Amino acid sequence: MKGKETLKTVGLFAALALFVAALYMVFIYVPTEAQMGVVQRIFYFHVPLAWLGLLSYTLVFISSIMFLWKRNASWDNLASSAAEIGFIFTTLFLISGSLWAKPAWGVWWTWTPRLTTALILWFIYIAYLTVRFYAPEKQQGARFGAVVGIVGFVDVPIIALATTIWQSEHPGALIFEGGLAPEMKLTLMTSIAAFTVLYIFLLTLSTGLKKRENEIEELREKLE
Amino acid sequence: MSFLSKSLAIARKEALAEMRTREMVFAVLVFTLLVLVIFNFTTGVSPQVVHDIAPGLLWATFSFSGVLALNRSFVREKENGCLDGLMACPADREVIYAGKALSSLVFMLSIEIIALVIFTLLFNVNVLSLPLILITFLATIGFAAVGTLFSALSANTRAREMVLPILFLPVVLPVVISAVQASEKVLDGKSWGGLSPYLQLILAFDVVITAVSYLVFAYVIEQ
């Protein structure tokens, strides 16, 4: 138990330190992009959020399968924690993208394949959280969630494909292209590392909390 | 009894129940008609506008009426406590899934064919062609496959009917996108070749999602 607490503290401080470094690099160290100007700095927050939103859903998918197979509550805790945090990260990803799109493209939103796929993924996260919320009991919610987690994940590549075919006939939006300068690459990597450590830290906190909730419930049942 | 004959028996039971009560066909048909009428007022009636928006209109209507039809599939069982009876019958869970999906498919297709006729009459756009019927058929397989799974799931939640659209609509979006595009091609008089990427995508969805839904269905109705 004690070792775990120490590990958590280390995780917290690692996330903090990495974030301080990432913020310094994003706002002071990295040169301003020539074409888009200052607003391009959103990129260093946007990309890590996108990566973790997708990673999180992959985690939901794998732990959903494992839960249905093994029926071990810890897999369900992992799936639901990943869905909750992944939903928040995907929401922030959509918001940061929108804030960037306005000055860069002149609109808050365009229906490019990537944006459309991200939006639908966001809706699937909502579907996952909805069935858990509306399930009459926890056990059922875990099973329902796993089913939506699996079907939703399998659907994501089909959505990506459909939006790509659909948009290939429409004019594409201007996308940030060309290679990254070394400073930019380094800043992006630091930012991704910072967000990933934060993600892992939040995930550990959330699964730990859910595990304790389960334990309390079991104890309560024993008392009754 | 084989898997197929058991599934057909369940589908037959659904058809009989519907023919005796007629509770679904009436409501869904009137609803479909009303959606078409409301769309008419939101878009105006100039022939060019109708031609441009017809595919979208058609698929928005099919998606909404699909939700309505699929909802009843399991809520009806739940209300009368029939699901327990169905689960007690000597058949695998997968048989229940196949029978239910099959009956939903036939029901939705019947409504859609009627809707296509009404659409042609009301909007003076001929949507009753072979390619369009094929698109409708393929897309509805996908609707029924994933809709049956989610219908069983949402019937078991506290909010019942409310939950299905939240689950169903985002997942079937690739089908809706492709069906709209393919219908647009048909109305523009394009050949079969122009349709094939969309038809392939709908077919891929049908195969993948039917397989996955079939595999996970047992976990949804497990007690």
How would you portray this structure in words?
- The complex is a heterodimer of chains A (224) and B (223).
- Chain A is mostly helical and 224 residues long.
- Chain A has six helices and no strands.
- Chain A has helices at residues 2-29, 43-70, 73-105, 113-134, 138-167, 182-223.
- Chain A is flat and about 65 Å long.
- With 223 residues, chain B is an all-alpha fold.
- Chain B has eight helices and no strands.
- Chain B has one domain.
- The longest helix of chain B is centred in the first third of the chain and has 33 residues, at 47-79.
- The interface between A and B is medium-sized, with 29 and 34 residues.
What is the percentage of strand-forming residues of chain A? Answer: under 5%
- Work out the oligomeric state of the chains in this entry: heterodimer
Helix content estimate of chain A: over 70%
SS class of chain B: mainly alpha
- Euclidean distance between termini CA atoms of chain B: 25 Å
Distance between the termini of chain A: 28 Å
| Count of the separate structural domains of chain B | 1
How many independent structural domains of chain A?
Answer: 1
Number of helices of chain A: 6
Relative helix content of chain B:
over 70%
H/E element sequence of chain A: HHHHHH
Q: Report the radius of gyration of chain A as a whole number of Å.
A: 20 Å
C-alpha Rg of chain B, in Å? 18 Å
Number of strands of chain B: 0
Instruction: Report the count of strand segments of chain A.
Output: 0
* Helical run tally of chain B: 8
What sequence of helices (H) and strands (E) makes up the elements of chain B?
Answer: HHHHHHHH
Largest sheet of chain A: none
What does the overall shape of chain B look like? globular
Provide a brief overview of the structure:
Chain A is mostly helical. In chain A, 82% of the residues lie in helices and 0% in strands. Chain A contains six helices and no strands.
